[in-house]
Amino acid sequence: QVQLVESGGGLVQPGGSLRLSCAASGLTLEDYNIGWFRQAPGKEREGVACILRSNTETYYSNFVKGRFTISRDYAKNTVSLQMNSLKPEDTAVYYCAAVRGTTTAYYHCSGAVISDYWGQGTQVTVSS
User: Which CA distances in Å does 40 have to 4, 27, 85?
Assistant: First the structure.
């Protein structure tokens, strides 16, 4: 059974940092293009950061560029999202998603590519 499990969410003050992790069972993440998405209450899900299977390309949405970093840990079969300088508007449930095949990181994050697997999400709340 394939599972993606996110962890690392929580409550943080504005300007703080969190590191989210996406762990997999039943599949090897290095075989997949991976994306982090988020959904805030009353809003549509949006792509945050995506990385290709080849690890040669990443994409960041404009609202996180320069603050968030997506990376792979092949030994641990995880993909992380380092989030710095967090803002209240970053508050959302964050999901990781995996898709096979040929795509671009932009297309994955834009939603043009339908992911094969999704995690259950982890809540990130940025508040003082």
Answer: 20, 28, 18
